[in-house]
Specification:
The chain contains 24 helices and 22 strands. α1 crosses α11 and α14 crosses α23. The chain is of the alpha+beta class and 805 residues long. Strands 1, 2, 3, 4, 5, 6, 7, 8, 9, 10 and 11 form an eleven-stranded mixed sheet that branches. It is 50% helix and 17% strand.
């Protein structure tokens, strides 16, 4: 231990004598280790840490599935859920959830999003209340009292964390609701997002005869000893029985049991592992860079090491001494990298897309500290071992004869350093190619026509409380009055309304029946997306009318039901025909009525620009009023000021109706691409960092080479070599290394790019334009890095070079 401590003190003194080298190495290592620690923080929280529930691996999501319609995770029919709950033996319980919203009234009207859940929900997920209690079975029956459970966040934000709120009624639209309890802050996450309150889902257990609509989420807890595969087998059998019992509704429908953890993680797993691999390449480049610095420094210390060996130091002692220096250097770099990681994590969280779960939980925890320490230790050994072995194996006599400032490296050391440059260039090209593919893909996605004009559009959601606006006439009057007042705001050009905006996750789909042709076999009914819109929606959004007429004020309750369809539906169901005047029946809306097609409008992308456009039907909101709709307002002035005026306008009509989700259409358009933009920006950042490190490494190797070959260059110039000859010699050496690295990297990038396939749009993983562009860019950067040492070589004075030897 005494010897080890002596060597450690010597290593510290040695590093202190080379501050420039230490700063360069620490910054390089800190960037590589810090980036790895930051990405691992995300991977650790999202993928590795268990969900905050008792025995979380036993929690499952149970979906309905339909292979004919290519839907593996479809929401569940309420009556099917009741039969599952009665017949399934693999679960301790199955709980169902539906979407819900609640408007708190008073001085600060606020609408909050929550879930209507069956009485056993909190028992199934295994979460006891932090305060109070949850629902009883009687409270969840139809006609039960208005009761709610608050989330920890809502309890603190709106009620000031008052424990006395439990058992008290709180004012809500239409009356009051009694607070039964407060859930713990650890409740979450779930695949459906965060909720702010829970209320009973009032489902009559005796209602099994009629089946229509699928809209429930179902979560279950496996019994001890039951595997997911066993539960899946049982649920498949139950679904098959229900298909036989209710063929009109359940033909081709089965069930799908998915781990809740897998459902939460979703597609983010592949993206996060991709980013972890990319940042690992950055760390390897950093190691190669520091390795080159260490080798250069070791060449200047050959005499020192030779003297230590001559004085009796063993080979092992020399190796240990060198390794201690590199490990100490790596640990310092790791400490600085950990500081950088804590800043980077805040940036990753603030810019992360909604598709990455548990973002609010991400932080630098003990696991990240441990990984950073282990990574630093491994990195120190990785880049220090070649130097340590080289010092131990050096020629003693040659080392004693050498001078610190004028020594030459062996051929093997020179080749090794050149090899490190090739590795850096190869890895940099892999990252640059990946980033280039994602950039090109996002460019093509951004160029997709959304089907409407997003300029000068503000969107705002209005959700009328059911308790006070349950009557359809009141709904129609409120929205007509609101639209009229909004049109009077200066700068407003037009106002429309729709239930689900394009390029947002919300939507609904149902079966349709074409009356001009025979019914398809059971379970193979045609389907279409459904939207409710008012006549002004299409003009406000500037959605083109292709044929027929648009909706108008005459399409009201009591008039014959009419719909608009999109171009895709017209082409798919009436190819080469005029769809105007065709009649159909729609399961979700007036299923017994014949609905007439009166017009065809342009296609819109339902949830994202890369979505496949499917058939879509638009109902008139005036024939099927809805409490919830989103206003779209075309405005030529200040959007921020308009939002303030909108709130004041709504408050004048009814102060208990709040506005939510205010955003420009450009913001929504940008958000729809966030799942692709996020990995693109991170990968581009890693690629830029990798290219900078590779360029610095190339510059360092060539600068060292020029210094080592000063005498040779002086002799060449004394014998008549011109400056451009020396420039070409040095520049050519750097470019040879870069070209070899580009070729090897291109081969590696072809294989690595396959992992990007699901993130690409309109671009193949082997896109030749992207590969050619990034290869040319890397060669230009390598040429610039090689030019400075080459130019310095042309300024060598032959007489000075010869005298110095």
């Amino acid at each position: 231990m005494s010897t080890f401590l002596n060597d450690l003190r010597y290593a510290a003194r040695s590093l202190r004598r080379s501050p420039g080298f230490v700063v360069a190495a620490v910054i390089t290592l800190a960037l590589g280790i810090g980036a790895n620690s930051a990405i691992f923080s995300v991977v650790n929280t999202v993928l590795l840490q268990p969900l905050p529930y008792p025995d979380p691996d036993r929690l499952m999501m149970i979906w309905e599935s339909n292979s004919y319609r290519h839907r593996e995770t479809n929401v569940v029919n309420p009556q099917n859920y009741l039969d599952w709950n009665d017949r399934a033996k693999s679960f301790t319980g199955l709980a169902a959830l539906s979407w819900s919203s609640l408007t708190f009234t008073g001085e600060a009207a606020e609408i909050v999003q929550g879930r209507a859940v069956t009485a056993n929900f909190f028992d199934v997920v295994g979460t006891p209340m932090a305060l109070g209690r949850s629902f009883t079975a009687a409270e969840a029956l139809p006609g039960g009292p208005p009761v709610i459970v608050l989330s920890d966040g809502l309890w603190r934000r709106r009620f000031g964390a008052d424990p006395g709120i439990v058992g008290r009624p709180v004012p809500v639209a239409g009356g009051s609701a009694t607070v039964l309890g407060v859930a713990p802050p650890a409740l979450g996450p779930m695949p459906w997002g965060e909720e702010e309150y829970w209320e009973p889902f009032r489902l009559d257990p005796a209602d099994r005869a009629s089946r229509g609509g699928r809209y429930l989420l179902v979560v279950g807890r496996l019994k001890p000893g039951v595997s997911r595969e066993q539960a899946q087998s049982e649920m498949t059998g139950i679904s098959a029985a229900l298909e036989r019992e209710f063929p009109d509704f359940n033909t081709n429908w089965s069930s799908n049991v998915v781990s809740l953890k897998e459902q939460v993680v979703g597609s983010s797993r592949q993206v996060l592992y991709l980013l972890l691999g990319a940042v690992g390449m950055v760390l390897l480049i950093a190691c190669a860079n520091v390795g080159n610095l260490m080798l250069g420094r070791a060449s200047g210390r050959r005499r020192e090491m030779a003297i230590r060996t001559a004085l009796g130091a063993s080979r092992g002692r020399v190796v240990r001494q060198s390794l201690l220096e590199s490990v100490l250097l790596a640990l310092i770099g790791g400490a600085v990298g950990l500081l950088l990681a804590s800043w980077a994590v805040d940036l990753l969280v603030s810019s992360g897309p909604p598709s990455i779960p548990r973002l609010s939980e991400i932080g630098v925890d003990p696991r990240v500290f441990a990984l950073t320490a282990v990574t630093s230790l491994i990195v120190g050994i990785l880049f220090g071992l070649p130097t340590a072995l080289g010092n131990a194996d050096s020629d003693l006599a040659a080392g004693l004869r050498s001078e610190n400032t004028r020594t030459t490296s062996g051929r093997s050391a020179t080749q090794f350093r050149a090899g490190l440059v090739v590795v850096q260039m190869s890895l940099a090209l892999v990252l640059l190619a990946g980033a280039g593919l994602l950039v090109r893909s996002l460019q093509r996605l951004s160029a997709v026509d959304p089907g409407f004009d997003p300029r000068d559009l503000l969107t705002v959601a209005v959700d009328l409380p059911e308790a006070t606006y349950g009557d359809t006439v009141r709904q129609i009057v409120f929205f007509e009055q609101l639209s009229e007042r909004v049109r009077q705001i200066p700068g407003v050009q037009d106002v429309g309304a729709v239930n689900f905006l394009p390029l947002t996750p919300q939507g609904s789909r149902t079966s349709i029946h074409l009356l001009d042709r025979p019914e398809p076999p059971q379970g193979q009914a045609n389907t279409a997306d459904i939207r409710y819109a008012d006549p002004s929606y299409f003009t406000t959004m500037r959605i083109p009318l292709q044929r027929g007429r648009s909706l108008n004020a005459a399409d009201r309750i009591g008039r014959p039901p009419v719909v608009l369809i999109n171009e895709t539906m017209a082409r798919q169901f009436w190819p080469g025909q005029n769809p105007i005047g065709q009649r159909l029946k729609i399961d979700m809306w007036k299923p017994d009525d014949q609905v007439e097609v009166v017009g065809v409008v342009g296609d819109l992308h339902p949830t994202a620009l890369d979505d496949v456009i499917l058939p879509m039907v638009y109902y008139p909101l005036s024939q099927e009023p809805s409490r919830s709709r989103t206003l779209v307002i075309r405005h030529a002035g200040d959007v921020t000021g308009l939002a303030t005026q909108l709130r004041a306008t709504v408050h004048q009509i009814d102060p208990d109706v709040p506005l939510t989700d205010v955003a420009t259409m450009f913001t929504r358009l940008s958000q729809s691409m966030s799942d692709r933009r996020y990995p693109m920006l991170l990968l581009a950042g890693f690629a830029i960092l990798a290219v900078i490190l590779a360029a610095v490494g190339t510059y360092g190797v060539l600068s060292y080479a020029v210094g080592q070959r000063t005498r040779e260059i002086g002799v060449r110039m004394a014998l008549g070599a011109r400056a451009q000859d020396v420039l070409g010699m040095v520049l050519g050496g750097g470019m040879r290394l870069a070209l070899i690295g580009v070729v090897i990297g291109a081969v590696g990038a072809v294989f690595a790019a396959r992992a990007l396939g699901h993130l690409l749009y309109g671009t193949t993983p082997t896109d030749p334009v992207t590969f050619a562009a990034v290869a040319a860019l890397l060669i230009v950067i390598a040429a610039a890095a090689s030019y400075l040492p080459a130019r310095r070589a042309t300024r060598v004075d032959p007489m000075e070079a010869l005298r110095s030897e």
